Amino acid sequence: MNFDWLEMPVAELNRTSQRAAEQHQATLTKPPGALGRLETIAIRLAAMQGVVKPELQRIHIVVFAADHGVVAEGVSAFPQAVTTEMVRNFASGGAAISVLARELGAGLRVVNLGTVMDTGMDTGTDIECGIDHDASTITHLHLGPGTANFTSAAAMTAEQLARALNVGRQNAERAFKQGAQLFIGGEMGIGNTTSAAAMACALLNAAPQQLVGPGTGLDSAGIKRKVAVVTRALAFHQEKLDSPLAVLQQLGGFEIAALCGAYIAAAKMGLPLLIDGFITTVAALLAERISPGTAAWFFYSHASAEPGHQHVIAALAGEPLLDFGMRLGEGSGAAVSVPILRLACALHNNMATFAAADVSQKI
After folding, report:
1. FRET label pair with 197: which of 117, 214, 237, 360, CA 20 to 30 Å apart?
2. CA angle 281, 285, 291 (to 5 degrees)
C-alpha cells in the first residue's frame, strides 16, 4: 500500500491575512488584548482561512469506529459489544455527538472500520470505493473484526494501516470539497484508551503508570491491570517501535489511524482542525510526528479527564479551550467548544471600530 501522500507538504498559513487580522483587532473598541484568547483564536483562523474576517458556519464531524483485540486482556469496564451498539446509536441519532451536531447545525458522518459484531445495518456509503449506495450517514468499511491483541502481535498489518490512514484522508478530502470551514474527528472503540496510552508511552518514552487511566470507568484494580497490559505490550514490541508509523501499526487502532490520516490530509489542504480529547490528541501527536507542521492547523478543544492527556497535549505545546472534566470521546468535547470559536469570530468581525463608534483610543 502507498504511504507516499504522507510526504506531501503541509499547507502554509496565510501570514498576510494574519497581519491584516491583527491590525483589524487593534481598531476594535476595547483595550488591546482585553478579549484574551478570543482575539488570538480569530487571528489564527484568519491566517488559516486566508481572510481578514473568518467564519465557522460549516462544521464537519466524522466519527471513526472500530474494535480492539486488546479488550481480551480485561482492560475495559464495558463489553466489546458496546462499539457496535454505539454505531447503531449514532445511526438513530441518540448519541451525545448526534445531539451536539444537531444543535450546532454541523454535518455528522460515522465510519465503521471494523467491529467484531455485525451491526445489521445497510452498507451506506463506501468512501474508499467512492460508491453511494444510499443517503445514510453511516459508512461501513470492514478492515477486519477489530485489531489483533497487541500484547502478542502487531495490532494491524501494513495494508490495514495504509487503508485506515487513507480512509481518514478521503473523509477529510470529502469535507474540504464540501466547503467545510472546520473538521472535527471523533472516535468510538471499546479498548481504545488502552491503545492510545500504549502509543503515547512509546512516543513520549513515558511510563505506563503516568499515562494509563480509567477509560470507560475502571476501578483501581482495573487500572493496575491495564498498566500491566500496556507494560507487557511495550516490552513485546520494543524493537519495532522505531517510527510513528511503526508505533501506530503495532499498538494502534483502525479508528485512531483514520483520525491520524484525516488530520494529516486536512493540514495539507489547509482545513482547520479541532482536536477532541485523549485518544484524538494521541492521533494528533502521531500526525505531527509523521508529517511535521500538521499541528499548525490544530485547535485543542478541552482538557480530558484521562490522566495521559495532559502529557500528550504538553508534547504538542497545546492549550485546551475548556476544562469540563469530560472523557466521553465521540468528538463531544470538540463539539462543545465550537461556540467559543464562533463567538471569537463574531467579536472579531462585528465589533465596532474606534473610528466608526466615535470612541476615543488609548492615549
Report:
1. 117
2. 135
Contact call for residues 58 and 345 (beta carbons, < 8 A): no
Q: 3-class SS at 173? A: helix
Alpha-carbon distance of 175 to 18, in angstroms, equals 24
Query: Cβ of 254: how many Cβ atoms within 10 Å?
Result: 36
Give the span between the Cα atoms of 304 and 299, in whole angstroms: 14
Number of H helices, E strands in the chain: 14, 8
The residue type found at 269 is M
- Band (53; pLDDT cuts 50, 70, 90): very high
Contact yes or no for 267/293 (Cβ under 8 A)? yes
Predicted pLDDT at 122: 57
Contacts of 346 (CB under 8 A, 6+ apart): none
Q: Which residues contact 81 (CB under 8 A, 6 or more apart)?
A: 116, 117
Degrees to nearest 5, angle at CA 113 with 107 and 118: 105
Tens-place pLDDT, residues 325-351: 999 999 999 999 999 999 999 999 999
Q: What is the C-alpha separation between 219 and 214, in angstroms, rounded?
A: 7
185 close to 71: Cβ distance less than 8 angstroms: no
- Is the pLDDT at 124 greater than 80? The verdict is no
Its pTM surpasses 0.85: yes
pLDDT 10s digits, 62-94: 999 999 999 999 999 999 999 999 999 998 899
Q: Going by DSSP bridges, is the β-strand pair 59-65/107-112 parallel, antiparallel, or unpaired?
A: parallel
Determine whether 330 is an active site residue: yes
Any idea how long the chain is? 363
For the domain 57-342, what is the CATH code?
A: 3.40.50.10210
Sign of CA dihedral 264, 268, 271, 272: positive
**80 is written with which cell numbers?**
466489546
Give 74's contacts (C-beta < 8 A, 6+ positions apart): 222, 225, 229
